[in-house]
Amino acid sequence: MNYAVVALIVINVLISLKGFSDRSFFERYKFQIGPILNGEQVRMFTSGFLHVDQAHLFFNMFALYIFADPVIDQLGVFKFVIIYLGSLLAGSTLALSFHKKDPYYSAVGASGAVMGIIYAGIMLNPDMRLTFIFFPFFDIPGYVFGVGYLLYSMYGMKKQLGNTGHSAHLGGAVGGFVLTLALFPEVFMQNKMITIVLAIPIILMFVFKNKLENN
């Protein structure tokens, strides 16, 4: 693994472990609408390094491990870190926008940041195919996963499915998409069709934003 990936994983693990053992620390730095609107904007950032439990932490770090190197190989460490942190904040920003009327809405996790890296990886590697642990003999194109997961996230937001920050996933994908285009505009000419396909669920999200918001 690249040293930047190792550093991000170590930071996530250390802060999450602190949150597991210190409830007041967890409550102080988690994403929560009410405190953020009252001036505690630091939660927009710190919540991206906290996790609910070991499984939540493991799956986010495993996804980061899988998708980070392809992004670093093409964009370099500095741009990779920009996409990671930018997607983290984009996820928090979208969650704040969608849930601004619910002061008790809270969330934690690196999912927004990781989703941004996943989206960047798919944009940069249009031939990427993904194999899932429960279906080892079946793989799907990366762009199908990207589009399908965002459509599921929109459905999950609307139906409030599970204890999952669907809005942060969507925001992270938006961050990864926009920042990849900004930092490496050549990706559009190189992978024009895939870029357009990946933009579709993002456009749909903004078109139907009022229907997805937590009112």
TrEMBL record:
Protein's GO biological process: proteolysis
Keywords on record: Hydrolase, Membrane, Protease, Transmembrane, Transmembrane helix
Domain of life: Bacteria
Keyword Membrane belongs to the record: yes
Keyword Disulfide bond tagged: no
Coarse class of the protein's main subcellular location: membrane
Protein name per the record: Rhomboid family intramembrane serine protease
Boundaries of every Peptidase S54 rhomboid domain copy: 39-185
Classification via SUPFAM superfamilies: Rhomboid-like (SSF144091)
Localisation: Membrane
Higher taxonomy: Bacteria, Pseudomonadati, Bacteroidota, Flavobacteriia, Flavobacteriales
Annotated transmembrane regions: 6-26, 47-68, 80-98, 105-124, 130-152, 164-184, 190-208
Any one GO molecular-function label of the UniProt entry: peptidase activity
InterPro entries for this protein: Peptidase_S54_rhomboid_dom, Rhomboid-like_sf, Rhomboid_protease_S54
Membrane topology: Multi-pass membrane protein
Family: Belongs to the peptidase S54 family.
